[in-house]
Every structure is written in structure tokens, then in C-alpha cells.
Amino acid sequence: MPQRTASTAAHTPAGTPAPPRLRGYRYVGVIGKGSTAYVFRYRQEATERDVAIKVGTTHLDSKAGARFKTEAVFMASLQHPNILTVHGAGVTDDGRPYTIFEYAPAGSVKDIIATQGVYPVDRTLDYGVQLASALYLAHRNNTVHRDLKTSNILITAQGVPAIADFGIATNIYDHRSTGYSPPWAPPEVIASRGSGDDRSDIYSLAATLYAMLAGKSPFEYAYDPHTIDELVDCIMHKPVPPINRADVPQSLQQVLLKALAPDPANRYFTAVEFARALQEVQIQLYGHATPVNVQGIEPYPTRAAMATAGAQGALPAAPAKPKDRRPLIIAAVVLVVLAVLGVVFAAVILPNIDHSGDTGTAAVVNPGMNGTSGGDDDDDGTTTTVPSPIELSGAYAGDTVKFTWSNPDPQDGDRYAWSVINGTGSGQANAKLIEGTSVEVPASDGAQTCIQVSIVRQDRRMSSTPATACAVK
Hints:
Layout: H1 7-10, E1 25-33, E2 37-44, E3 49-56, H2 62-76, E4 86-91, E5 97-102, H3 109-116, H4 121-140, E6 153-155, E7 161-163, H5 187-192, H6 198-214, H7 218-223, H8 228-237, H9 250-259, H10 271-286, H11 302-314, H12 326-341, H13 345-349, E8 390-397, E9 400-406, E10 415-421, E11 432-434, E12 438-442, E13 448-456, E14 467-472
Antiparallel strand pairs: 1-2, 2-3, 3-5, 4-5, 6-7, 8-9, 9-12, 10-11, 10-13, 13-14
């Protein structure tokens, strides 16, 4: 073990625990501290690059230390441009766990808000799509963060936002507490004082984006609580307010409020669906979107953007028709609805699906787990396309319409996401998840009632194209 240099003590503020002596690394100084760890800056001697080393303040026994090393290796496998790179991990001679991270010289989003003020809308949306992509990759690998906040979003040397601290600090072994931060935690985490799931992470990411626009976490911004107890009471019992900024559009406010819904079932289904909603706002405002960066996921919602344009009035309204031509008009309307709406489901309907029956996600799992179902994967590891339902049809029965369909490739755990399509081309408010292959819905006003249905696999993959059908009176 190399000797500490004389400069180590000079760079360590009073009251800071001594930084560990690590072979091949030279201590430079303190970066920051949290409730469970300190972060030090070191220089890697072989490469002369700076790294950040997070050192826990508690001591692990030999069993917990071995588990920490194994799980740190797994965390290092989560390679994504928007996840801070893990270079290594271990346990010091006195039992403190440490993790070696990529050094982010620009600091955190929290630092930037404090020194430069709130973020512009376009950059917030850009960061949101990038971070939601990284979050989805982690969730797909059965890993939840549990403590997303502005101080855990760091800006790398390339100017890219990156999520830090994916739960491999010491508190992961103390199941009495998850180490969450109340300003950013959803009600279900605060109520249980326990670990959250992927929808809890979506809430915390939305709270972080909210703070980028407002300068503070949602309930600190709105209610100015003076104590943690007051803050918790606000989170548990009061609504999230809109952001008082004229340049923050209503469409973005609505996306954030949905992701911040107090009931997890009313949030976005997955982080990638949250990203899709943010992309839709980008397209509406700027005509372009930040790509979703996850293997196997389409980067852009091109077809959904076309459908959104149609719903906003790009498609001409049909003129009044003579009564004797009504059957032809109905048929034409049905064709237009199907042509426009057949592309919107993956990016617009799914974010609003009811989550009843979803299960939680473990914080860190066995490194051998890959988070995908083996039955739907090709031998080379690529994910096969989920088919669309077939034989979808509906029939009126008084004031209701019953739709039925078939699954061409049933798998264990399959469910069905369905939505009634209204006359504007949007059915997102009605989206539901069910287990059966039929549904009875109230008849829509007008001459037809239309729905869309997709198959949703147990691993949350869904039909690439939904089945659509209209029942005509």
C-alpha cells in the first residue's frame, strides 16, 4: 500500500474523514459530502486522469463487503452515456466501501442552478429525454436509483448530464432506510420509509426537471415549508402546483404533473414513455426531438408526431354532406381515424396506462439477471417484435360496444393495453391495462366507436403497432 503524500492532510478540511490510501491513485482534494458518504478527487497515476471516489461513512463486515464488490461490478455494466461511468470499487482496510467514478468537472445540476439560475425550457427537455433513456436502461436491468435529485445529476467533461450514485452506497445494505431525500421522494416512499420502484424513479426525475425550471423541488417551490415535517405534509396532502414561468408551456406542465402524480398508477408506465412525452413537447415547440438512446427502442416518435399534428388540426375538417351519402362519409371518417391513430399508441397512449397489479423492482439484483424474458429473445440476444392483436372487432349493444380480439402468440404474463379513441385523435385519458381479450365500453357520441389494443408482455415490451377497429352504428 503506497504512503500518503504530505499534501493529503493539507487538502483535507477539518472534520473530514481521512481519505483512503488506494494503490495507483493520488489524493487531490474533497469534492463534496452526503448523508452517507464523502466524495474525494484523486488522480489515477497510470493515466494522469482525475477520478471521483465516493467513500462510505459506515463500515461493512466481510459478508456485506463481498456483496458490495459484486454489486459494484454489476453497476459498472450499466454503460450508457447518461450514467456516470464506474471505473472500480472496493472496501478499504478499515471496512469502508468505496466506488471510483468518472470525474465530472462541471459539477451538478444543483450547483449550476445555484450559480447560474434556472434552466431554459429547451435544455430541460433535452436533459429530460437523455436522463429518462438512462433510467429506462437501468430499470430494464432490474435496478432502481431511489435517490434521483439535482445533486445526483452531474455534468461530464463532454457537457452531458449523467446520473450518479445508483444505490451502491452503504445504505443499500441497511433495509431500515433507503437513503431517500424527502424533497424529491414520492408519497409512497415517504409513507413506507422503504424502497421505491421504477415509477418512484420517474417521479423523482420529474421533480428534478421541475427544479431545473423552478429553481427548487416542487413542494419547496410552492409552499415554502420551514421544516422537514412541513415538507412531508405538503408532499403527502397537497397538489403539485404549476410552474410560474411564462415561457414554460402548458404541454410541458402537463407532462411533469402526470409524472408527479401522487398515485403511482397514474404516472407514466415506463421511463421511456416519459421520454416519449417529453419528445412530443419538443416536436410541438421546436419541430425536432432529442433521440431516445436505448438499444432496441426507436430513437424518434416520428409517426406519433405526425398523428399529433393531425390531432391539432392539420387534417381538414369534413364539410357537411347530404344525408343519402352518410354511409360513405362514415367509412371515410373511419379510414382517416385508423390511418392517423394507428401510429400514436406507442408514444401517446401507453404513458397513461393504469398500473394496477404491477410489481416492484429490486434495488440491485444478482448480476447474472438480465431483466428480459427468455421466451421472446432470439438466440443472438436481440429482442423480437411483439405482435399486434388480431381479429379485433366490435358490436353495439344498446349504449355500449363490446370489442373482442385474439392474441396470435400468447405468452405467460401477457396483458392488453386498450383505449377508446375520441374524435380528436387522442384516447390517452382512457388508457387501461386488462388481462382478458374483450372489453365493453360506453358508446361514443357520433356514428362510430373506435378503440386501439396492444399486447403488453410481462417485461413491459408491447406491440410495435396497435390493432385498431371501429364499430359503426
